[in-house]
Design goal:
Elements: H1 14-20, H2 25-31, E1 43-44, E2 51-59, H3 66-74, E3 79-94, H4 96-104, E4 109-116, H5 119-125, E5 129-134, E6 146-147, E7 151-153, E8 156-158, E9 163-167, E10 170-174, H6 176-201, H7 210-216
Parallel strand pairs: 2-3, 3-4, 4-5
Antiparallel strand pairs: 1-5, 2-6, 2-9, 7-8, 9-10
Amino acid sequence: MTTDINREFERVSPEIVKQAAEYQAAILADVNGRRGAMHGRIAALRPRMKIAGSALTVEVRPGDNLMIHAAISLAKPGDVLVIDGKGDLTSALMGTIMMTACKQLGLAGVIIDGAVRDSLEIDEMDYPVFAAGTNPNGPTKFVPGRIGHPITCGGVNVCSGDLIVADADGVMVVERERAAALLPLARKKVEDETSRIAAIKKGDTAAKWLDAALRAAGVLKEGEKL
């Protein structure tokens, strides 16, 4: 019989999380083929908030947080609660009490395709929370859902154990199996961008690839330049 709570999954390693935390979500998105970034509606409550950790997925019915309470009880330090709240903003799924428990238990952060409340208090806690919005209305606590199963959050497929990196630009999801291989690519991307920015500051502002791209797009004729 299939259980609604899946406890058997492999988490991305703490060492990979530590290394991935050094990079912006945008860098990881670029080296991941511009895939894995959640819809921009899911944003940090405050721009300074950052998350890096291993996903623990939760699926709930809109407006009900029963399974989130269960997930908090099952979560391990370093986990990121990633909650498919169906994008519903008519009531908050979490607030100060639950976020305080998450922080106390060592969870790396919370991501909700839904609403939260007590945003000022969460800000004062300095606990990283990414949500689709806020609402003062509270949730119910009696509708079943699922924990540890694949979900869709912000338009992206997420499995428990996947790498999550989130910052002011948004939330990035990397499949656990791909995470380690992306780190050297991310390092090189940062090095290349650092070099390019330094060159721009010295006056080399021309995008050397631009003319060829415009010709390929049919904007410029062959041999023509801007």
